[in-house]
Design brief:
The chain is α/β, with parallel strands linked by helices. Helix content is 55%, strand content 14%. Helix 1 packs across helix 5. The chain is elongated and about 60 Å long.
Amino acid sequence: MNDKTTLLVADDHPIFILGLHEVLRNSNRYEIIAEAEDGEQAIKKIREYKPDIALIDISMPKKDGLDVVAQLSRWANAPLFVLLSLYDDEVYIRKALAYGVSGYILKENTHKELLKCLDAVRQGERYLCTSIREKIAVSDNSKLKLLSQTERQIFSLVSNLKTNADIANLLSMSPRTVENHRFHICKKLNLHGNNALLKYALSLDDAN
């Protein structure tokens, strides 16, 4: 009986994939059952093979890694997603966390951290490599310092999934006042779009 965790690896560099095979060869916990060279192929093969974990490069032809995750994240048989990147770009990291990825590691650290990341992910944990965690923490701390005390209270309540009505009741203010505070918080944090504040607040919890 094969009780290994199955993987799909999507990357357009064959040498990199060979390196992953080498790293995993001595592990009795993981098995690569499919490979893809671009985002469209990755989507097709994920649907076909239904791996437990999809290890995907962010920069790929046709569709990038974020496109793949966005398209499949709500699929009933969606795997756990781990993204690989050459760069610790905060925009990509934030989007990845908002999409609910389970892991995000830099390619320069992949072979060293791969098993550590996969072990965490298969146990239901979220894994970000150290340099990414540190970068997000510094960025978040500097941004949150822009908020007033009341705005920080509201931000904290939003991260705890409180509605405007809940927050108004807890802080003894009107829902309209809460909405005004949320508007100013979004402006200070440069957040745009529906539910942007909630997604950002949740991404901070996930990154910590």
